Description:
Elements: H1 11-14, H2 19-29, H3 35-38, E1 43-48, H4 60-73, E2 77-82, H5 99-112, E3 117-122, H6 127-138, E4 142-146, E5 153-155, E6 158-160, H7 164-174, H8 180-189, H9 202-213, H10 228-247, H11 251-254, H12 257-269, H13 275-287, H14 293-301, H15 317-322, H16 325-332, H17 349-353, E7 377-382, E8 385-392, E9 402-410, H18 413-419, E10 432-435, H19 456-460, E11 467-470, E12 482-484, E13 504-508, E14 513-516, H20 520-529, H21 540-548
Helix pairs in contact: 4-10, 5-6, 6-13, 9-12, 12-13, 12-14
Amino acid sequence: MAEPGGALRSARWFGGNDLAGFIHRASLHGEGISRNALAGRPVIGICNSWSELVNCNLHFRGLAEAVKRGVLLAGGLPLEFPTISLGENLMKPTAMLFRNLMAMDVEECIRAYPLDAVVLLGGCDKTVPAQLMGAASADVPAIMVTGGPAEAAWFRGRQLAAGTDLWHYADDVRAGRMSDEEFAELEAAATPSAGHCNEMGTASTMTSLVEALGMALPGTASIPAVDAARVRAAEATGSRAVGLAREELRPSRILTPEAFDNAIVTLMAIGGATNAVIHLLALAGRVGVPLTLDRFNELSASTPVIANVRPSGEHLVEQLHRAGGIRKVLAELAPLLHDDALTVTGRTLGEEVAGSKALDRDVIASLSAPFAPTGGIAVVRGSLAPDGALIKRSAASPGLLSHRGPAVVFEDVHDVAARIDDPALEIGPDSVLVLRNSGPKGGPGMPEWGQIPIPARLLAQGVTDLVRISDARMSGTAFGTVVLHVAPESAAGGPLGAVRDGDTIALDVDAGRLDLEIPAEELRRRLDAGPAATPKYRRGYGALYLEHVLQANEGCDFDFLRACPGEVAERDPLGLLDGWVGGW
């Protein structure tokens, strides 16, 4: 990033003919990097979330090498650095608990080190938004290259999605339609390569939205992880990072209200994950864009679904890529987008997608003949969700989108595990399953517990879906008539904490309503009489999280990390580079 007078940001570390410059240059000499390699070259950081604990990101060492090659070809100096990595499957209680921690790690590394631009290398669900949030707050030129979807698994002659098909087979096991031996056979086949989920789950949704936001090179979102084109995309990204450094094209110039509109339209059109709503709200908060759930609802109503990808459709992201990828989706959506939004290429979104046409109409439809007339996600409000809740309409049962039924309440996920298949549980096809104490504070971390399983005896009777309501999230690979992100959550005093077994709950998605049908006075009485929530953590990061996390309708970021009005990104907040202040 250019400093006043045209000097690079890194020149404040390496350009001085003084003791500070000596120490800074000598630190890199110790790595075998010569003084000539530093002279006038942009220093490009490669923010790598590689980890052997995160199979989605396991191929990132090779991608980082390709990024370095691109940086060198363009005349820059690449310096790779690690951050913590968040794995959706292995981290407990949930990777979402640590998204903000990773964002802080990324932000402070970018701010504190001599970087003129940074390449963000992420893939698994929370790594992408965490890196974007950190880079947006640091506001040093940044560009992202994502890891790509994994190869499809094959099981008994059928191509499988990483999560969506698993949920179907899990129900088959519980209903007695699939043996344990067959399920073990599925397990052995389920994950054939590195890469993130290969349907339109949270990972593929977020990589798609990075491209729609203008923070990645056009056409790179959907390239499979094992495709050589993914490596070439990493090289091209490294080269472009050098241009970003010289042009001082910062995230604050790209992440505008118009860019967020473009991302929301794309989210709705691809039937993307509900988790993306939380991440976009958090990212907007980092750059001071006043984004609310109402904007999602407005754009959903005017955006059709044009991507036929599981769980909302039939295909996988690989087929979407072969049909032209997100670049072609954006081209089809052009009349609904802000085509003058700037991208990391230095060109507008309209310029980048002009003339593109989908290659397979069974995968990417036109606006005139969409797969569904309105967007994949709807916002509902009412006495049960005063600050809003979400439902993935494109993956729900149409017959349950307007429903009234008696509540069956579970206090937490352990209560679900203990009672969901209990023969004594009073439940039927009209019941509404309610899960509470699973939100940002109650979970803690808002785990993906919202897709409450259907009781085994109802599965055996042929019941495949029930209305389910919670303050939790659910996997973007999941499906069903599931109302999520109820705000405020029960642990923060929300109405979900007042629901009792047998209470009537009314859901009307078309009307945007979710109501607990009890008198307002009774609702207040129950909430006033309810027990105070006991904090799950009393020390460390967990305690910090519980004290500062915002609710789902505000993105679950920390209150102190949101942009302040009129704030300018601090390059050197303490003036530490004005003279030698370090140690040997």
